[in-house]
Amino acid sequence: MTTSLAPRVFSGVQPTGNLHLGNYLGAVSRFVPLQESFECIFCVVDMHAITVWQEPKELFHNTREVAAAFIAAGIDPKRHIVFNQSQVQAHAELAWIFNCVARLGWLNRMTQFKEKAGKDRENASVGLYAYPNLMAADILAYRATHVPVGEDQKQHLELTRDIAQKFNNDYAEEIAAAGYANGFFPMTEPLIAGPATRVMSLRDGTKKMSKSDPSDLSRINLTDDADTIAKKIRKAKTDPEPLPTEAKGLEGRPEAANLAGIYAALSGTDVEAVLKEFGSAQFSGFKQALIDLAVEKLSPITGEMKRLMDDPTHIDAILSDGADRARALAEPIMRDVRKIVGFVGRAG
Ligand code: AMP
Ligand code: TRP
Known about the structure:
Structural class: mainly alpha
CATH topology of the largest domain: Rossmann fold
CATH superfamily of the largest domain: HUPs
Radius of gyration: 21 Å
Bound molecules: adenosine monophosphate, tryptophan
CATH architecture of the largest domain: 3-Layer(aba) Sandwich
CATH class of the largest domain: Alpha Beta
Shape: globular
Order of helices and strands: EHEHHEHHHHEHHEHHHHH
Largest sheet: 3 strands, parallel
Number of domains: 2
């Protein structure tokens, strides 16, 4: 019964290279404390990655690298599940069913598709268009109740709820007959909070920090060493004014707001506290403090990622163990889904 569903967290990160500070502050770092109060499933979504072309060798490397980042950031793969999506068939199977639940009109509204497909929409893959249905399947194959993500995923999570709702309505009779009193899929809660839900490019405060920005100076990668981090922050775009003393003063100053948000997230405070400390000081002093903080927080993670990447067999073992455990959670749910939809097969 959905009412008695234990809280369960699911989140995914694409192995598309250049894992950056936005991914870390908006998502991965926020996964870590959730381990204390939730059962967690963290997934390297390699099937999502191939919605745009990936060199197979790079995909292979990047999948291990995202897994290494999860673990280096403090996710415990023994207590929780870390795996890559393609090892668990339930994702593809449920995505197909959701392709038949979701409406074209819903997907036509997805802003991320419009951004990623760009002007050459005719040439985008069908997978890129159907991508949000696969994301809904990732979450609902485990009947996950909470999903920590950055702001850019909000619309996809709304769609996930729409899909869950429509499935629950369309199959209401069968769901009840299978013994579920309150619908089959939960209305998943997004967890989007904190000062860094949308980290912006260091070169342009109106653009999201992104793996695919052609300028490497626009982002801090989790693989950057201390000198590179320092150089990128020093070169980060700012305006000529010093930092304001109150958050209101950041309006219309996207670059200043971004750096203050990054500092707040890295130091575990909020923007008000940062402005109290650095307000009316010159940017050069603030930037130096930000460099010191970023290096202090990120270097241990970078170091641990490197160490883990030196032993790929160990990472692969973690991913296949995680996949076994994920499969065991998804399989009974999928048996019910097949029965509810009306697929003939061996009764579970
Ligand atoms: P992706 O790299 O698209 O797979 O994103 C992985 C996670 O990082 C998702 O939860 C995103 O919402 C989050 N994320 C990506 N870019 C940013 C950003 N610039 N600021 C905050 N969160 C982000
Ligand atoms: N679409 C997400 C992104 O690009 C990644 C993702 C795939 C995801 N499946 C998910 C996030 C399920 C949360 C839950 O960032």
